[in-house]
Hints:
By secondary structure, this protein is α/β, with parallel strands linked by helices. It folds into 3 domains: 12-88, Arc Repressor Mutant, subunit A (Orthogonal Bundle), CATH 1.10.10.10; 94-169 and 276-302, Periplasmic binding protein-like II (D-Maltodextrin-Binding Protein, domain 2); 173-274 and 309-318, Periplasmic binding protein-like II (D-Maltodextrin-Binding Protein, domain 2), CATH 3.40.190.10. It has 11 helices and 11 strands. It has helices at 13-24, 27-34, 38-52, 68-96, 105-122, 179-182, 190-196, 207-215, 232-240, 254-259, 287-314, and strands at 57-59, 64-66, 98-104, 127-133, 150-156, 166-176, 199-201, 227-228, 245-249, 269-282, 317-319. Strands 3, 4, 5, 6, 7, 8, 9, 10 and 11 form a 9-stranded mixed β-sheet that branches. It has a two-stranded antiparallel sheet with strand order 1-2. The longest helix is centred in the N-terminal third of the chain and has 29 residues, at 68-96. The model is unreliable at 135-140 (pLDDT under 50). Keywords: Coiled coil, DNA-binding, Transcription, Transcription regulation. It holds the Pfam family HTH_1. One of its GO terms (molecular function) is DNA-binding transcription factor activity. Residues 31-94 form a coiled coil.
Amino acid sequence: MKKRHNLLPSSLNGLRVFEASARHLSFTLAAEELNVTQSAVSRQIRQLEEQLGLPLFIRHHRALELSSQGKEIALLLTRQYSELNQTIRQLKAKETDTLRVQVAMSFAVRWLIPRLHSFKSLNPDVNIVLSSSMGHSNELLQLEEDDCDIAIYNVPEISKSANMPTFFRKEYLAPVYSELLTKTDEPISVDELIANYPRLHPTSDQCDWSEWLSRNDRTEQINKDGLTFNTLDMALTSCFAGQGVTITDLMLVVHELQQGYLKLPTEATIVTNSTWQYYYQTVTKGDNVTRFIDWMVQEEKKDWAALTHMAELHGWKIID
């Protein structure tokens, strides 16, 4: 019988060691990932090069560089290992009906968690594992196969690419306050709110206040006064306590606006954020992933309908 794959090494472990070394361009980091010694990695690579009859690395004094042959093999191995890992995880997910969702912290706390009972009522057999991230960075969209099934992030608008995440929605910014702050249920004007009450900044760079004031031709009112937080959820908690007025994405507080826990000033202007937007990315495929995304999109449509209804009722102007 003719032997198939006769050019492959007798042990495929060397290929796994090479793939890790090529990703890190470091035998030391590859050894840490594989839980072996650095000398074991170096020895495996030399044996693999001898078996293949090809130089895989160019060894410099303090650095590694892939050879042209090594680059081609590394690209193929990383892709094939990723596809195999993803297939195995999808098969395991079908067995356990587990859906892993990774999501930005404020979106998780303010929007997703309060609605999860709705998804669970429609899909009682799906077990959801929710994890969150404090950060807001395009780097978060470079996901590993083991991270999650779905990722939802609020990040700067990103350029189109082959693996581009799917656009979910824009942010809709406006100042909000609690009656605990004003000590009255009488309407408050924008000018009075901005001039007389402390500002709560939901981001360390204070970009949301700057964005809203600039879009309303109020650049002269941009300042760093007040309290600054590094998450929107902290700023909203302070706002609920009556400690000041904050800028927020209104789509995260539709219920609070409907119930009167938060208010907008009279003749408020709602502006779409010109930079930050929501995207979602699917890492695996399957019925649970599809159902979750469809449910999420429908919930967002309900909130948008509720927000536009309140805008018409109260005279809030939405500027795209």
